[in-house]
Amino acid sequence: MQSVILSTATRILMPMLLLFSAFILFRGHNLPGGGFIGGLVASATFILHCYAYGVESTLATLRISPRMLVGVGLLLALGSGCVSLFAGKPFMTGRWGEIQIGAEEIWHLGTPIFFDLGVYLVVIGAVLTIILTLAEVD
Fold this sequence. Notes:
This protein is mainly alpha-helical. It has five helices and two strands. The mean pLDDT is 91.
């Protein structure tokens, strides 16, 4: 039986929790947080959706296999570490670059954020693979 209160609360909370997860991910570059904690918050959001709507609906909402998220995250984290090798530096040495946006705005991007994104995706994929597999058995 599906709870109306849980379904309504999930619909309202999901966007806010995913936004909070992204905030924690990007905040973690300079302050506590980062890919691991942000990934746990995002995973908890989809687990809440699973309790409210079921496994099939959660997988449809996710639109990508959790196992695929693990693979993409591992490749992204590994790739961010290999960038420094091409510059003649040790593995996982942070590298930064600039991207010109418009006439005056410049974004400074570094490999640590891509590593955090990889960890974020791995955590989401691993947690959801475990929880959704256990929920399917029920």
